Amino acid sequence: MSHSDAILDRLMSLHPKVIDLSLDRMHRILEALGNPQHRIPPVVHIAGTNGKGSTQAMIRAGLEAGGASVHAYTSPHLARFHERIRVAGDLIAEPDLAAALEECEAANDGQPITFFEITTAAAFLAFSRTPADYTLLEVGLGGRLDATNVIDTPELTVITPVSIDHTQYLGETLPLIAAEKAGIIKPRVTCVVGPQQDDALRVIEARASGLTAPIFAFGQHWMAAPDRDGMIYQDDHGLWDLPRPGLIGAHQIQNAGVALAALRQLGASHAQARAAVTRADWPARMQRLVRGPLFDTAGDQAELWLDGGHNPAGGQALAATLADLPTRPTHLVCGMLNTKDIDGYLRALAPHADSLTAIDIPGEPNTLPATQTARAADAVGMDAMTASGADEAIRLIVGRTPRARILICGSLYLAGRILRDNG
User: Fold this and answer.
1) Cα dihedral sign for 93, 96, 97, 98?
2) Of 9, 41, 175, 260, which is least packed with CB atoms within 10 Å of its CB?
3) 404 Cβ partners below 8 Å, 6+ apart?
4) Contact in structure between 128 and 100 (CB atoms under 8 Å)
5) How far apart are the first and last CA of the chain?
6) What are phi and psi of 231, to 5 degrees?
């Protein structure tokens, strides 16, 4: 166990709840730390339900292609906590992470604070100590009361598509959820808005209007669409004719559009736009696994894929991606959290899968039991079974169908475990 891992384990016990949306504890600890959030480079703040991580990755790729140095904050991590904090382009170094965490732990002085809040404070501390041109902040949950929402005057705010998710924290309806996401909008700061359902867009526009924040919205001020073997982005400044995004899936054109709209607001060039769509890398978003123990188990005749989409909108995007791939017997290996709408997720995938093998997420207390995942799959018409883990599931599938397309899916926490175990 590394020094930072030991500190992170201690920080997990500082609050009885994993999620407790409030800004009071953040303001308290940041004040004790000297308010490092006021000393970080200009912020691009990104909220939304789906596509935040991919959009952030493309914005970063575009900015870095123009020579900018970029801090980036994202969550959750997949294999190592360090993935959450990228300092001037590089994952935070272990000594720097441990030092920031220890300083935050001391400043907190044992008071209640969630794991996400205190680690976000550590990210601000790290960002404040290294020069850069931009800071990309991805909201953890919601927006209005998220720990990242302590930046008074960001350079730009971005809201990716909003859909139903985390209803126990954000509200039962799309307008209520959109209101939480729109909480990142700040007075007179431009907000880039991705494709939205009408109910969500009305809420976002009303919030922006009340704060005199200019809106740069899909369908009104910019558009992005596939075009032959590439894609186009267009706004009042002109048209960018670009390759298809390197990230796989038709939905990545939508994510690319949001990223390109943000880059346009930041003054990016056509060359930077091209780099944004071609150079971005974002693991566990329809990622092809081509090495490692699980790849060896699958054998060289099978395809092995990994995706961390975990809500109905993610299921729909994944289904569209599967529909675009060459025809091949497709078998899912699925593990979900018990907080997710598994029925909505699986319903979109059912027409594109020959079977589903359900597994528990190893080491995750909030895993949905494999038996319940299998029952949900059966209810939407899938041929469903269970296995003790991903390795057994893959062996069962290739034993029946050596040339299968195997997709491990359902939760980012499962995806992270797969990447660690398959490394």
Assistant:
1) positive
2) 9
3) 298, 302, 303, 328, 329, 330, 331, 397, 398
4) no
5) 17
6) -150, 160
- Whole-number Å distance between alpha carbons of 411 and 318: 13
Question: Is residue 17 a contact partner of residue 114, using CB atoms and an 8 Å limit?
Answer: yes
The whole-number average pLDDT for the span 249-263 is 95
Do the Cβ atoms of 26 and 227 come closer than 8 Å? no
Cis peptide before 76 (omega within 30 of 0): yes
CA 417 to CA 60: how far, in whole Å? 25
Amino acid at the residue 212: T
CA distance 198 to 318: 23
Structure confidence at residue 172 as a pLDDT band (50, 70, 90)? confident
Classify strands 330-334 and 405-409 as parallel, antiparallel or unpaired: parallel
Please identify which residue in the block is written with the tokens 């960018």. Answer: 240
What is the spatial distance between Cα 340 and Cα 348, in angstroms, rounded to a whole number? 15
Q: What was the pLDDT predicted at 170?
A: 84
Listed in sequence order, the residues at least 6 apart from 53 whose beta carbon sits closer than 8 Å to its beta carbon are 74, 138, 282, 285
Residue 244 parent element (H or E): none
Closest of 216, 212, 213, 276 to residue 243, by C-alpha: 276
**Mean pLDDT estimate for the chain:** 94
Q: Is the pTM of this model over 0.85?
A: yes
How far, in Å, CA of 406 to CA of 404, rounded?
6
Strand order of the β-sheet with 330-334 is 287-288, 303-306, 405-409, 330-334, 355-358, 384-386
Residue 233 identity (one-letter amino acid)? Y
Is residue 386 over pLDDT 90?
yes
Distance in angstroms (rounded) separating the CA atoms of residues 75 and 328:
33
State the CB neighbour count (10 A cutoff) for residue 219: 11
Distance CA 173, CA 187 (A): 26
pLDDT beyond 90 at 310: no
**How many Å apart are CA 339 and CA 165, to the nearest integer?**
9
Contact 235, 192 (CB under 8 A): no
Quickly list H helices, 36-195.
Answer: 52-65, 94-108, 115-128, 167-170, 174-181
Distance, in Å, from the CA atom of 409 to the CA atom of 411, rounded to the nearest integer, reads 6
Q: Which domains does the chain have, with CATH numbers?
A: 3-279 (3.40.1190.10), 287-421 (3.90.190.20)
CB 415 within 8 A of CB 284: yes
Q: Is the pLDDT of residue 28 over 80?
A: yes
pLDDT at site 348: 92
State both tokens at 223.
């558009």
